[in-house]
Amino acid sequence: MPQIVSLLLLVFITALIAARLRIPQVPVLVIAGLALGFTHLLPRMTLNPETLMSILLPPLLFEGALHLEAVAVKREVWSISILAFAGTLIAAAISGLLFAVLMKLPFQYGMLFGALISATDPISVISIFRKLGAPARLTLIIEAESLFNDGMAAVIFLAVLGSTQSSHFNILQSIVTLLITGGGGALTGFLLGYLAAKVHSQLDDQLVNMLLTTILAYGSYEIANSLRFSGVMAVVIAGIVVGNKGLLHSMTTEEREGLLASWRFGAFVVNSVIFLLVGVQVVRLHWVGGLYGVVVGVASTQLGRAFIYPLCYIAGKAGECIPVRWQHLLFWGGLRGALAMALSLAIPSSIPCRGLIVSAAYGVVLFSLLIQGLSMEPVMRKLIPVSETEVVS
Fold it and tell me: What's the burial of 189, exposed, middle or buried (CB within 10 Å: 0-12/13-18/19+)?
């Protein structure tokens, strides 16, 4: 209990500091975590893959999906699909190949790094977008891309991880695994979300509705995983279905806003604790590969993300054009966070280069949160003229 109170107090203090300095809270949380790690003030605080994947990630993914409007996503279906699915696959391949070559690793281990590091986390970016009044379409694209990107990255990671258990990397087998785990997770999430939406229509108690959404968030993840499908993809799809079908049609506006506010608060607390622990974990990490491994990891990740430019061109041909200035923001706003860390920690100890991959992944996360996160606001002010801003709720 003292640990929990200490964490929440630190989250509160960092929120005050960030507000006073007018900077995103996420980098402040990471810096506070680094200070805690060096001073050993809370020695028992740590991150483990089970806690991250099974307890902390489902509500984060579910909360983001709840707010995603299906009608708006449908209007941007080409842009979001190309960036989230093709973009994640290509980024994973480019980052993984470069990391394998430069670090002199077998291809499948490089792809393991590429898969886990392709998961983006725009938490601080979205808060800046809303604060400065970024165009609603740009906010939608980066938020929806990240949600589906997380599911896709987790699916690729599981497919590649399965391949590493055999003596050689089988691309065809990996593709089949990717389709089965991803498709199975999406179908599981859709069915559970549809069922929950039907139940919501029979309820008139806001607290019971809140309980049902909580069960759905964790239940969809656990059920999909037990079926050997993607739990991450299941949570995202379940959240979108129940948010657009269940909550939208079975509650009054006031009830729905109250439930969404509860989820926003929960996601805020969970996110804050995760990023605080990132700093602590970075200090305790055994940095295999040292600075060179981190530099290679960052460079490989950025080059993989750079493929977003030709993909935006393709998306523009299929649908509405994405301005070049927006493309720069999509590139620089591709921060890495909780899912990348969770997947790296989930690599079995039997993988020979696990330490190198984990340390490189943490280096990329640290770079993106501190360097990209802190520079995002001035970059956006430079790229988005005041005349193009609007109020984004």
Answer: buried
For residue 114, give its domain range.
2-170+268-388
Model confidence pLDDT, tens digit, residues 188-230: 999 999 999 999 888 878 888 899 999 999 999 999 999 999 9
Q: Which residues have a Cβ under 8 Å from the Cβ of 201 and sit 6 or more positions away? A: 246, 249, 250
Crossing angle between the packed helical segments 290-305 and 354-367, to the nearest 10 degrees: 60
Whether 225 contacts 181, CB under 8 Å: no
- Give me 28's structure tokens: 């402040």
How far is residue 80's CA from residue 68's CA, in Å, rounded to a whole number?
12
CATH number at 368 reads 1.20.1530.20
Q: Is residue 44 part of a domain?
A: yes
Number of domains, the chain:
1
| Token pair 């994640």: residue | 88
Secondary structure letter of residue 68 according to DSSP: -
Asked if residue 293 lies in contact with residue 56, where contact means CB atoms within 8 angstroms, the answer is no
Structural domain includes residue 257: no
Query: Taking Cα atoms as reference points, which of 315, 304, 298 lies closest to residue 83?
Result: 315
Q: What is the pLDDT of residues 285-315, one digit of tens each?
A: 888 778 899 999 999 999 999 999 999 999 9
* Structural domain includes residue 364: yes
- Are the C-beta atoms of residues 304 and 114 closer than 8 Å to each other? yes
236 inside domain = no
Q: Which long-range contacts (CB under 8 A, 24 or more apart) does 81-85 make?
A: 81/148, 82/311, 82/314, 82/315, 82/318, 83/141, 83/145, 83/149, 83/308, 83/311, 83/312, 83/315, 83/330, 84/144, 84/145, 84/146, 84/147, 84/148, 84/149, 84/152, 85/148, 85/152
DSSP string, 344-373: HHTS-TTSTTHHHHHHHHHHHHHHIIIIIH
